[in-house]
Amino acid sequence: MTDALDERLHTLDAWWRAANYVSVGQIYLLDNPLLRRPLEPTDIKPRLLGHWGTTPGLNLVWTHLNRLIRERDVNAIVLAGPGHGGPVAVANAWLEGVYSAVYPQIGQDEEGLRRLFRQFSFPGGVPSHVAPETPGSIHEGGELGYVLSHAYGAVLDNPDLVAVAVIGDGEFETGPLAASWHANKFVDPTHDGAVLPVLHLNGYKIANPTIPARIPREELESLLRGYGHEVLTVEGDDPMDVHRQMLVAMDAAHDRIREIQRLAREEGDVVRRPWPMILMVTPKGWTGPGMVDGQQVEGTWRAHQVPLAGTRDDDGHRKLLEEWMRSYGPEELFDQDGRPVAALLEIAPSGPRRTSANPHANGGVLRNPLDLPHFSGAAVEVAEPGGSIHEPTRVLGTYLAEVMRRNADNFRLFGPDETASNRLDAVYEVTDKVFGAEILESDEHLAHTGRVMEILSEHTCQGWLEGYLLTGRHGLFSCYEAFIHLVDSMLNQHAKWLKTTRTLEWRPPIASLNYLLTSHVWRQDHNGFSHQDPGFIDHVVNKKAEVVRVYLPPDTNTLLSTMQHCLASMHYVNVVVAGKQPSYDWLDAEQADLHCARGLGIWEWASTGGPEPDVVLACAGDVPTLESLAAAALLREHLPDLAVRFVNVVDLMRLQDERAHPHGLSDRAFDAVFTTDKPVVFAYHGYPWLIHRLTYRRTNHDNIHVRGYLEEGTTTTPFDMVMMNDLDRYHLVMDVIDRVPGLGQRAAGVRQFMEDTRRRARAWTREHGEDLPEVQQWRWPGSAAG
Predict the structure, then answer these.
(1) Is 370 part of a structural domain of the chain?
(2) Which residues form a coiled coil (predicted)?
């Protein structure tokens, strides 16, 4: 070992020891941050919360990445899969000086260190994970499985960025993580950056050994090579030896990355090559207490959280804690004022090259608005309601193609093998699907470079998009409605991130997370019951009101207007549900835009009887709108004296009270539309109780009767599907008759006719395998198509 190398390694070790010291202090200490005196019970937090076991390994990665950044001017961010190692990100941000710049009250001195320690996992302080409050974080890691997909999303269209993704060996066992290993087949080395995975094998989860640590090493490395990686191993428990190995591995990994990119960018050689990764094998809770109360801690699952749990009340534990912290040599690492010594800071990068200050980890500062065409350029002509038929998502595809044309490095479309199935294939006129593995002559729209991302893993698509958004770009996730539930937990985490960052002025807003849910519950003609579930809306509505938006456009032009609005929005989760099958056009472009701006409105052309209605016929969703209009036509035909007000809802959150949601209607406005005392028959796309939940405070709530999905379904015709759930036009007419006072006796014959027609319709499907001709051929009265 040369003197120069020896000096570099000792400098690295000093930073690592300092980071470990600051990490331990955050878990344990309220006061006495530099151990100026022996620890006392009052120096210890009453509740010890945090995770030590993963911390020294994470600090090792941060330490050596900082060295690489400084020596080679690498543009890099870190994503900690073991996000419960939160003290690591805070410690390194503080050592880099970024934490004190963002939070001036946490100075880079002894008092700042005391405050830093005190706030961690403490009431009114900061969370224990790599949370949004931590500079440099785009990945909290509170839920395991997403670190690789987030990292790959971050490097798309970021050609100079390296995302170092640390994967815990517990996280390695999760399904989403397993799928995301294949994300390296979707990186274009010409235009994208690179991900450097670091699989950290410390052997244990919270109470059990991990699978990758207990299978033969050859088997594990074969698996990783099979995923498409060159494995560089760093292993041991001697700090100086491990530092030497990590230095060599980091340099080698960076060399491999740059060579792959050079071949692609300078020589046009895009043959897929193994990307480097580091297999880091170190003890659980490395450098922490070896034995506690006669039991081994270091290198076991006992080091996972707090190795010394009784330090406030147990003199022996407190003495062990002091010995542990003093073993890092704080007197060598901090000066008399508590500042990191100058020699220690030599390893830190400067300015935006610091991982905690890298702008890619604060995507709002990089976000540029999309260049969005006005949707009217793609709108369909509607001379009269119901006078034409289009496939809404196919028309939307033409609009998205223009969006992609105008935003060639700022917008991507994500989905699980469903872009064409969801009728969005017009985008292929502008871009292909990116695919780095073998491409055959028989393949269509596959290329080594492209802006459509498809993998049959909803988790990976969601993670890609989140990483893309969090680093300042824009996108859309298109998915079958029933299967978007697979990312329920991921949506939870992202919504929490958005909610928290709304309160952090130093984090500007990012682009919204936009979902297009199609192939929906009411039109699963050949897939059946397994593909019928509208419940994602209910899940989304549970999130904070300032973050979530739900839209149910009734036709093609309202879908276009809605999507333009969503793509332009910031810091929301937008859920848009729209069918892909041929359906009627109700509103022209101008009417659609106005209707969407209102969020809900009275359709005068579908209403009868003047300003004072006998009943309100309301609907939300494309199929409920069709059935409600058909019911309105039947009422017009059979009960011409009945005054019917027809109301369509696009923005579901308009139903809520304005005090509960920013889009909510005032009570006065709601009562003006839905009345204070008239029956309301509401045909809804999803589970009916959600409408009751949104409107329970309203004056007229007791008169609101909702029809929706009742968990009845099978492979059947479209109309039979709505009949199975009592959402059909005939049942809606019966609901009106049953609920308008005094109408039941007068309209008994009409009601009986509706019942009989339902039976006839059901029998027809069973005999002919298709819907009743009068249902198939129905048109809005007076339309050109009628």
Answers:
(1) no
(2) none
Q: What's the mean pLDDT in 265-273? A: 93
For residue range 508-522, list pLDDT tens digits in order: 999 999 999 988 887
As a whole number of angstroms, the longest Cα–Cα distance in the chain is 102
Residue 274 and residue 219: Cα distance in Å, rounded?
A: 18
Cβ within 8 Å of residue 652, ≥6 positions away: 537, 541, 550, 551, 552, 620, 694
Residue 783 predicted with pLDDT over 70? no
> What integer best gives the mean pLDDT of the chain?
95
| Residues 378 and 399 sit within 8 Å (Cβ to Cβ) | yes
- pLDDT recorded at residue 354: 96
For residues 577 and 613, state if they share a domain. no
Mark whether 661 and 565 lie in a shared domain. no
Q: Where are the beta strands (DSSP E) in 329-458?
A: 389-390, 411-415, 433-434, 446-447, 452-454
My answer on whether 571 and 641 are in the same domain is no
Q: Which domain holds residue 422?
A: 375-584
Q: Which residues contact 304 (CB under 8 A, 6 or more apart)?
A: 51, 52, 53, 54, 204, 205, 206, 207, 284, 285
- The secondary structure of residue 44, as a DSSP letter, is B
Q: Average pLDDT of 142-153?
A: 95
Task: Give how far the C-alpha of residue 692 lies from the chain's centroid of Cα atoms, to the nearest Å.
Answer: 27
Q: How far is CA 324 from CA 37, 200, 739, in A?
A: 15, 23, 75
Residues 398 and 457 in one domain: yes
Residues 580 and 607 in one domain: no
In this predicted structure, what is the pLDDT of residue 418? 85
Q: For position 526, what pLDDT does the model report? A: 67
Let me know: does 119 contact 152? Beta carbons within 8 Å: no
Amino acid at 118: R
Verify that 503 and 650 share a domain, yes or no: no
The pLDDT confidence band at residue 525, using thresholds 50, 70 and 90, is: low
Residues 307, 425, single domain; the answer is: no
Is 393 a residue whose pLDDT tops 90? yes
Q: Coil, helix or strand for 326?
A: helix
Decide: helix, strand or coil at residue 99. helix
Residue 362 lies in a domain: no
Domain boundary, last residue among 526, 552, 584:
584
b/e per residue 537-574 (b: at least 16 CB within 10 A): bebbbebebebbbbbbbbbbbbbbbbbbbbbeeebbbb
